[in-house]
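W.,

You were right to be curious about this one. When I first looked at the sequence I had no strong expectations either way, so I just let the prediction run and decided to look at it fresh. Below is the sequence, 294 residues in total, followed by the output.
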Amino acid sequence: MASLTVQAPAKINLFLHVVGRRADGYHELDSLIAFADCHDVVRVESSDNLTLAVEGPFAGDLEADADNLVLRAARAVMEAVGETRGAAITLSKNLPVASGIGGGSADAAAAIRALNSLWRLDLSAEALAKIGLSLGADVPICLFGRPARVRGIGEQITAAGSLPPLGLVLVNPGVAVSTARVFESREGAFSDPASFPEKIPGRHELIAALAGTRNDLAPPAMDLSPRIVDVLEALGAQGDCLLSRLSGSGATCFGLFPDSEKAGEAARVIRDMQAGWWVHEGCFLTETPTPALD
């Protein structure tokens, strides 16, 4: 019985400007997105029926019901091509839920790519992105899976090249944040698009360029979840931290460090300070994870 697995890496918004709102209510964004070396895992296996099982450290925070984004993604693929075969899907939930690092969108993207391979559909990248966008604004970039500038509601994706070597620390204080509530709570005028190079520069230039950007969702997210402030302060207090910022609508924050050793030292300090926080130290990915046969 054929089966394969696909990693669903965490999505990091290095900056996020809210630049407008369309008549249909969707917000238009300008964001630089990269992917971290921590991930959920989606496993698909041939089956007569479509089913989903959820396991892993954060499985208890997620329902495996019909509205789960992974099942919605599978149904969207089936409807797009008239597929009648089923699949037994297992989601290993290793990333915090509703945490601003695209977990649900990454899981949906992984399911789409896995089923495209399992059922040998040979759908183009454009066809996959169209299916993804019907599920959510972050799914197309999670299908792309490499550093990119993302505009519009998430459908305009421009490759940004590779990030320079950096250490990365992700911290979540154990609170779920509703993206919809963050957008609803946002006040003030819309931002201009970021003044940022189209291609990612070297490390020093990257940090300087990022310092001229922001995450427009940070103020409303911090109002809804003040513990985000504690996380940013903990990251910023680490002497080698080059930049700390909220990712997406939170509550996960990231810190950039000169190298993996400095990131590891910072992560150990933060773990010792806050044993209940989720902390990951690592790096950014340089390529999209590919489906792997079991």
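Here's what jumped out at me. The chain has nine helices and eleven strands. And, maybe more interesting for your project: The CA atoms of residues 222 and 229 lie 6 Å apart.

Coffee later to discuss?

I.
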